[in-house]
Amino acid sequence: MTSVAIYSHEDRFSAHRNKADEAYMVGKGLTPVAAYLAQDDIIRVSQLPFPCLHFLLFHETSPLM
What we know:
With about 60 residues, the protein is of the alpha+beta class. It has one domain. The protein has four helices and two strands; from the N terminus they run βαβααα. The protein is flat, with a radius of gyration of 12 Å. The two termini are about 25 Å apart.
């Protein structure tokens, strides 16, 4: 299983980004909090071929729903 992380520009050197197998920046040009709330970017990343992220964002039994 691979891990996928999203990160803001300010978190580009953070441990979670560096330890993930793949990482994608979201909310470019936004404050750190706004970047993690940038729904369009998060949905864009979720449409990449990562079944686990798609489950977390869209499945009715997801802990995030």
